[in-house]
Amino acid sequence: MIGSSQDIDQPSVEMPLLAELTGHDFSSCKVSIIVGDLSAKGAGRWGGAVRPFLLSQALQRLGCGVEILGFTDDDTLPFINSGLSIKGFPQATYPRFFRSVRQLIQQIEGDVVYAYKTKASSFGVGLLARQLRRRPLIVDIDDWEMSWHGGDQWQYQPSLRQRYRDLVKPEGAFRYPDHPVYLQWMERLVKRADAVTVHTHFLQQRFGGIYVPNGKDTQLFDPSRYDRAASRQRYGLEGYRVLMFPGAPRPYKGLEDILTALDLRDEPDLKLVIVGGSPYDDYDQTLMARWRDRIIKLPKLPHDEMPQVLAAADIVVVPQQDTPAAQAQFPLKLTDGMAMAKPILATEVGDIPSILGNTGYLVAPGDSVAMADQLGAIFTNGAEAEQRGYQARQRCIAHYSIEGMAVVLAKVLAPFVSRRHHPTHAAQAP
């Protein structure tokens, strides 16, 4: 029921057992995932690593056909070597955006529409598809979008002149599909979806729905497949003790706190390795300007190369600050490190403690002194750190695998698969 909250246990399963565990045949079901931004600054930035592609992998494990449809200003679409159909449509401002929306809706082939994020460019399009194409609609929420704009405190209170500019001018704010006013509207319409999935308990408390944490391909991210010494040589990391951050730097992710911890330890061979940099702004350059001697920056790498670079790490760091944006997120780098059996130094923010269980090293957010102390403890007690890393991998396999994600999604999809044979139960217009 929309507005209710459910947690469904994720068992550890092998692929051949999925059909038996779910009790449903999904081979004749196709799911259309709508993504508001497929560009290199959006879901296309990490290839198969981000949420829409994880959902796709899990659905494919069930036997579903999957397509991704979305908007992009890039000439090329993300390449995913999995037989996944990806359809791109021009990003635009209103009113030209309506033309792209119409094109997208006409090309939906799925029996179920799955909108990624509570944005007009995804969930709003999904609501239209639900009405026009009579398809059931699921919305997946992996961020509190309004947290980027001040949360519940944000209000649109312009002067009359500014309101006129926002509405009428060619570059007016209301021309952009994901303006905060539209985000607020979308949040109020979540109850009109036929089902809701979320990936953190923070979001579940806010929007209800079924908890579907991110899954990791634990066969690709398997440390036994990679040689640590060879990886360190390949990426120029020999001779260093490597703290790795395999993500996009942003202020709320706490990299300044971990770099301050490195200053406190003042050990020249301790390096923070940032993989990929920021696609949003020049914040990583700001960090480099202040901590050039502490940081090694690696270029953006294909998703299937990430386990190899992670093999070179001594520790994976997830030092999130305690902000609404961070509380709403499930840091993908967390399960990267867990799957690769790495010691993980993280902060007690959002779902991080429950994801790690007792397998990581936790400190209070913003506490650089505690981070420095924990770094010393990890390197002093290598055997314990190695054991915790092993336990983290076992926990990832048991609770955060793609197969476990698929089992939960089977329960989300099951009502719509059985309903397909009963036209009178088709989705009703909102």
Helix content: 25-40%
Give the structural class: alpha/beta
CATH topology of the largest domain: Rossmann fold
Low-pLDDT runs: 1-16, 421-430
Please tally the helical runs, counting DSSP H or I stretches of 4 or more residues: 17
Strand line-up of the largest beta sheet: 1-8-7-6-5-2-3-4
Q: Return the CATH architecture of the largest domain.
A: 3-Layer(aba) Sandwich
Quaternary state of the chains: single chain
Q: Radius of gyration in whole Å, from Cα?
A: 22 Å
Give the number of DSSP strands: 14
Shape: globular
Cα(first) to Cα(last) distance is 16 Å
How would a textbook summarize the main sheet?
8 strands, parallel
Beta fraction? 15-25%
Output the CATH class name of the largest domain: Alpha Beta
Mean pLDDT: 89
- The CATH superfamily of the largest domain is Glycogen Phosphorylase B
Q: Give the count of structural domains.
A: 2
Core attributes:
430 residues, alpha/beta, Rossmann fold, 2 domains, 8-stranded parallel beta sheet, 6-stranded parallel beta sheet, 17 helices, 15% strand, globular, disordered N terminus, disordered C terminus
Could you please describe the fold and organization of this structure?
This protein is α/β, with parallel strands linked by helices and 430 residues long. The chain has two domains: 5-215 and 402-425, 3-Layer(aba) Sandwich (Rossmann fold); 223-399, Rossmann fold. Helix content is 38%, strand content 15%.
